[in-house]
């Protein structure tokens, strides 16, 4: 009866609407009435699409609920030590979220642990060591607050970041100097400290629940024993982000094989390394003193006893075939060399140079800083006619690039825009002098042996990305002179749109002839979609369509739902993923597809798709978040449609 009465009310409302519509049609001018009818149809279509999407999301939530209940059942089986993974399941896990090389046999418990990802944090109780760290960090915070407050008092007013003569140094002082007390700061800090101590006292005697199952804890012990015995090495893949398990002997052989490249590396000595970093410090002190920097700042940016940079490698698992997984040949595996320069001789000085050089990137016309800039350029491009789109990729830009050409391009950019840059008292020639010395100090150590990189830029050095971008601005100048429909680049990934295929071939040949060591590869659209960065682009009849994209090499590993990270951290990760998937999608259908992909990624990392307060810090109702952003996007389209 209730449904029948609602139906009768709806029919009566529809009849009234029809009568009013006919009256308006007689009174309103014909042209205006046609426009009103057209806009009404658009609004109705949007409402239908919104209802359709809501029903789809509801169905997806029901499916997620069923899957989550199945996952919970499997988890309970694990906790009771009754889990029995088949060999096919283990193979699937190793291929999806863990890469195992050279036929290493791992237990199902160890695989289950490694599946959680490199960012997984173990839950730990508050022990005396944690309390000591809390007290020490509170003391550091109090000193910093006092220092800032006292400096404001000395300068006679508030100090704004924009008016600061020199940027804040992120490096600690060489010597500790107690700060003078400040009444206001000390009062507020005392309240903060009491609150922190109250939380510590509340949880110090409580036993923290494990966020690992019993089988995973057993796998943790197994992995720890094998690592301590030197049997295996745990690493993280280059682009996939998953754990990689490799025999330690094979890992050493692969690194040694990589260091045999005489065009890239040469043997060195500790004496030569010491002489070079002392020369760098001497040049820095002389130049900075002439530029007028304070002696305290000069000393804080100088490293008297630096740590020698070390080499480590990331395996390019996306370039390994299935047959190569069991190979013992070091030449089969490709690696990305990274030189960790944390605490090294150029670490602090290169930070200061990077502050200056970052300003020149705004004058590189093809440079991209994020996906939003790419979408803006695509929308502003003139895509009339049958245009052609492709993406170009530079092969090993950092190691194959020329340092001399990079320095020359950097010098030209600094010289052309010197008046608009904040150089902190340095001249362009002084900056280039210090920059050359930093690049000359390209030493590192591996397995107790000193090496020097003699070609290209070292991954891991602060200056490498900026210099690579400046170098590429010189390489791509002939292409920009030809004025293609669109040419843009993110470091070594280029997106180019040309009016004809012939013009595209000419541009590709020109780029490959700019330098002997620099070579480009190309990728054409597949099924009319071209992947670039984290989106896919489709050009059709002068319109651009975009959607969110995940590379096949990416294993979609995020912070796991069961990780001991703060709940808000995990919420931010998931919300940001859905936000990006929503914003890069050009229409409702593509947005639905992108959000479905984001939902799958979230589920693969243990996040449920429905309301559930997880005992291990889960996130509630991912699907509602996606539906909320979908509704916002639809209302925006509805309001914007009359302007088109």
From TrEMBL:
Q: Which residues form the signal peptide?
A: none
| Occurrences of domain Reverse transcriptase (ranges) | 425-519
* Domain Helix-turn-helix, residue spans: 558-609
Reading the lineage from the top rank, the first entry is: Eukaryota
Q: Which InterPro entries match?
A: DNA/RNA_pol_sf, HTH_animal, RT_dom
Q: State the name under which the record lists this protein.
A: Reverse transcriptase domain-containing protein
């Amino acid at each position: 009866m209730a449904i029948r009465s609602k139906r009768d009310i709806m029919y009566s409302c529809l009849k009234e609407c029809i009568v009013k519509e006919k009256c308006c049609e007689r009174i309103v001018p014909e042209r205006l009435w046609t426009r009103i009818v057209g806009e009404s149809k658009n609004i109705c279509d949007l409402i239908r699409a919104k209802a359709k999407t809501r029903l789809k999301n509801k169905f997806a939530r029901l499916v997620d609920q069923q899957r989550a209940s199945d996952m919970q059942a499997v988890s309970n089986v694990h906790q009771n030590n009754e889990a029995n993974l088949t060999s096919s399941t283990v193979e699937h896990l190793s291929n999806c979220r863990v890469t195992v090389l050279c036929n290493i046999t791992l237990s199902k418990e160890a695989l289950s642990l490694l599946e959680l990802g490199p960012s997984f944090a173990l839950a730990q109780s508050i022990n005396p060591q944690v309390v000591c760290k809390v007290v020490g960090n509170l003391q550091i915070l109090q000193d910093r607050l006092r220092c800032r407050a006292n400096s404001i008092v000395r300068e006679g007013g508030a100090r704004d970041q924009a008016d600061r003569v020199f940027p804040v140094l992120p490096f600690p002082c060489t010597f500790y100097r107690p700060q003078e007390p400040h009444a206001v700061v000390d009062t507020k800090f005392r309240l903060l400290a009491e609150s922190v101590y109250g939380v510590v006292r509340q949880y110090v005697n409580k036993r923290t629940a494990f966020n690992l199952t019993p089988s995973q804890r057993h796998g943790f012990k197994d992995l720890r024993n094998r690592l301590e015995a030197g049997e295996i090495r745990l690493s993280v893949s280059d682009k996939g982000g998953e754990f990689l398990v490799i025999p330690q002997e094979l890992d050493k052989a692969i690194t040694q094989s990589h260091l045999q490249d005489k065009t890239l590396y040469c043997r060195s000595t500790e004496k030569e390394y010491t002489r070079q970093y002392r020369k760098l410090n001497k040049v820095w002190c002389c130049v900075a003193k002439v530029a007028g920097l304070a002696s305290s700042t000069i000393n804080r940016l100088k490293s008297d006893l630096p740590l020698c940079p070390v080499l480590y490698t990331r395996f390019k698992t996306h370039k390994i075939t299935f047959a190569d997984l069991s190979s013992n040949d070091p030449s089969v595996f490709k690696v990305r060399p990274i030189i960790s320069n944390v605490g090294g001789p150029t670490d602090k000085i290169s930070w200061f140079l990077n502050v200056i050089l970052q300003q020149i990137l705004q004058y590189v016309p093809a440079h991209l800083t994020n996906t939003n800039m790419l979408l803006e350029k695509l929308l502003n491009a003139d895509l009339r006619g049958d245009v052609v789109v492709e993406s170009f990729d530079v092969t090993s830009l950092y190691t194959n690039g020329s340092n001399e050409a990079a320095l020359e391009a950097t010098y030209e950019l600094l010289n052309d825009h010197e008046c608009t840059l904040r150089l902190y008292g340095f001249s362009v020639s002084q900056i280039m002098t210090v920059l050359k010395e930093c690049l000359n100090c390209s030493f590192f150590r591996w397995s107790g042996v000193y090496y020097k990189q003699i070609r290209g830029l070292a991954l891991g050095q602060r200056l490498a990305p900026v210099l690579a971008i400046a170098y590429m601005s010189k390489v791509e100048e002939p292409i920009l002179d030809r004025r293609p429909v669109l040419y843009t680049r993110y470091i070594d990934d280029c997106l180019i749109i040309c009016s004809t295929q012939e013009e595209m071939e000419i541009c590709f040949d020109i780029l490959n002839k700019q330098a002997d060591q620099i070579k480009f590869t190309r990728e054409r659209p597949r099924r009319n979609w071209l992947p670039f960065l984290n989106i896919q682009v489709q050009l059709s009849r002068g319109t651009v369509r975009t959607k969110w994209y995940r590379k096949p090499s990416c294993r979609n590993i995020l912070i796991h739902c069961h990780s001991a990270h703060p709940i808000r951290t995990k919420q931010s990760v998931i919300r940001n993923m859905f936000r990006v998937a929503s914003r890069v999608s050009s229409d409702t259908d593509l947005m639905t597809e992108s959000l479905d992909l984001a939902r799958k990624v979230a589920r693969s990392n243990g996040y449920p798709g429905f309301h559930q307060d997880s005992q291990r810090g889960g996130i509630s109702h991912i699907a509602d978040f996606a539906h909320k952003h979908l509704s916002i996007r639809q209302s925006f389209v509805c309001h914007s449609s009359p302007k088109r």
